[in-house]
Amino acid sequence: MYPDMSPPPPPPETKPLTPRKPVTRPVDQLAAVAGNATAFGLGYMLLNRPRLAAIALIGTAFLLYALALDPENLPWRILFGLWWIAMTLHAWHLTRGTDAALLDPDGPGRVPRVRLLALGAAAIALLMVAGLRLDAWLTVRGAAAAQTEGDCAAAAQSLESLEAAHRITSGAVTADGEEQLEACRILLQALSEEPQVGANTMVDYMDHPGALWEGAGPERADLLLATARSGESDIESALEAAFAQLATTLETTPGQSDRVREVVEDLLTDLAADRLACKVMQINTWIYAQQWDAPELAEPIADAAGQVPVRMVDCARLRSEAAELEDARDAYTAFLAAYPDHDLAAAATDELYAVETAIEYDNVDGLLSGGEYCDNPAPYRAAPAYEGEGPHAMWTFGLDPSEYGFPGSWQAGSVNETVLVTCVEGPEQGKHLETCRYAWEDPSPIPYSSVSFHASRFEIKVYELRTGAEVASYTEEIGSPCPNEMTYYGAFPPNEALADFSDKEVREMFYRLMD
């Protein structure tokens, strides 16, 4: 037997492997286009194109994020529109030529379920966009109406409800709303601050492009007037700024004329009830020193003019009670000069006299107590007059009345008892009286010497305290020379000496004033 020498059968033929392409699912063209019209790649999902669907989702998410960050950025909005159109057209391109008969599993005449799904998703997306746009428009419009009425609290609360979805779908509207919200926050801050600070913050609101409240001008003026009433800053500067604001409001927003008048009337009503009369007087003085042309300002100011003189007198009385005598005198004087025929003029005249008397008292009391009256004689109208029979109580400078036995009736115990102020200078050397020879005892270096005695001379000036006028000026020389004994101090005996005088002689110098 011989081995089988036939050749082996050839190996089976093999084909090279090729990458598998994604199989496009047959989808109704309208369903694919509507699915991609949602901007989330639903059409690609229906077509079994997961990569394209992922790209669509990522691209749409990126563009929505960019629009949420910057809703007014036009290039981003144009790019999103182009992106949406591209996806929609691409879905149409991928499904062109599709045989609708293959897509009707439910039989002729029935709408495919996939089409209903896609159209429903597109309709939901469209309704969401329309709803968000309508909600943003209504929110911003309502907030604008609230702010226009001055209710920024309600406007801010409404505008704070706008979210990223509103910014994406209604960029211009939400941007306007955010501008209003920023303005309202400034206004609410101004109204919560102290009047002076709030008035400055109110300027920032009025300059803001989102500001819609025309009443901001009068409100700022009201804050400035509150600052003036508080007296915590320069009253005149606050008043000037407030009324300048009111005048500007009348020019720029005539519809606020009633509010301007109300602000002025409220100010004058508050001033009428304010117990700080001097502050009120300062405000009134400034107001009534101006020339007002606008009737909204001039009329209420004219109507309240009657309170001005009353406040001037009230202020003068308060300052008098507080011992602010010079200020009280000035207030009474200003009132009497401006309203000499007013019902309060008689009482104010008497009160002014009392204030001036008190000023004079304080002045002469200081001069007498400080020993300066003789250099600066001044009147005190309430002092007793220097007339009639004496004695006339004296306030004496230059010697101590009690040391020389002055009667008590000659000595003034207080300013109100003082009739005369006597100013005494001396004793000084007067005329020569006599020369006497003395024998000196040890330890004198010389046993004998002569001493010339001179009279003790006193210069006396007398003022009537009531008028401050000089009523007497004279010189007296007193003293007896050559005493039996004489004591000296120093190394050598004196050659001259003043004559000794008695208490009686000193008192006699003032007899003429007591008659």
TrEMBL record:
Residues 1-22 are annotated as: Disordered. It comes from the Bacteria. It comes from Glycomyces rhizosphaerae. Residues 1-14 have a biased composition (Pro residues). This is Uncharacterized protein. Keywords: Membrane, Transmembrane, Transmembrane helix. The chain crosses the membrane at residues 29-47, 52-68, 74-95, 116-134.
